[in-house]
């Protein structure tokens, strides 16, 4: 079994680093932990770092979409950082345009955009 | 086989001139090249010049939508320039409203809007 997905507080945002080998069970656990943390800490934004992902499939695409959906319902904006070019191409080819999320070039850019909100 | 679709750097944007006779293979190659260029050069915007297109079908419509989707996931805004009136009419008639893209009258207008972001 792989480790627990880390969730770190950075300014008023939660940084979630999605691992390459995330499993179904871990995602359910991550959704619970993330949603609790968002409401407890009155978080403005969630930053999903997906730089560890070299390949995506519909499963991972759905994970990203679901985490973004949960965050939005709890009034937090979601930014995705560290997306590789091939990952973007694959997601779009799979028909997953992820309209709920905003992307940022880096963590610094995402934090700068969250400060502006 | 037709030539390679040119991608040119203009200010902080990439100018892509879509050719009339673009094929499936060329599109895959274009997606790869464009996505790599966006992330390598930290591009703010992508400008799709479609003035060469006199007729569109769902295939070309999907190409435009996919290129815009990839750019957005990589944090670049997409502007379409040079759209002919008949092309706009056809796209809407095909039900392709292309919500992801912004249109600009000309390259000059698109660059002006990108500078403002």
UniProtKB/TrEMBL annotation, chains A, B:
Start and end residues of each STAS domain: 3-114
Entry-linked InterPro entries: Bact_StressResp_Reg, STAS_dom, STAS_dom_sf
Pfam families according to UniProt: STAS
Cited PANTHER family: RSBT ANTAGONIST PROTEIN RSBS, RSBT ANTAGONIST PROTEIN RSBS-RELATED
Protein name in UniProt: Negative regulator of sigma-B (Antagonist protein rsbS)
